[in-house]
Input
Amino acid sequence: MDAVVVQRGSAKEELRTMLFSVPEQTWWLIAAAATVMFMITLVALPPEPDEVPDAARATFRQLSKNSKWAAYVGAPVLYAVVGLTALLRPEPAALILFLYSVGIGSMPIALLPIRRRMYRHYFAQLQNPGGKVTMDRLSAVWLYSVLTLVILASTVLLTAATYEPRGL
Output
């Protein structure tokens, strides 16, 4: 009888470190892969040189040089902070790593289809420095819709996966 209790306890503990039947170590690999894909996307996001209007080229070069360093240095620091947070929290790290992977993986999906529209709008604003900084409506609707859908879906999935029914 005691052996059965020990086995149940260890199985329950093993289930606690798993999310969607995926072990915690695999969630670390998934988070690392999502980070690598996001960093590759950062390289793919900047516009081609022929997409930049001549009037905004010098301003864009200066701004992109500064932001490139911030993205390539700041992003890994942010990812390290998320990883440390996952290690320090008392809950299983798989929960935070799932949310991190979903969040970091959804950004390229949300940004790549509207990339050209956003840059055209951005270059128009660079050429008119006193103008109001806005986002065109189609890009805003797409971006907000995709990210809202991702947030809702991940919340529902996480809630369903961690639900433990109580006795009646």
The mean pLDDT is 77. The CA atoms of residues 15 and 65 lie 47 Å apart. Residues 57-88 form the longest helix (32 residues). The chain has six helices and no strands.
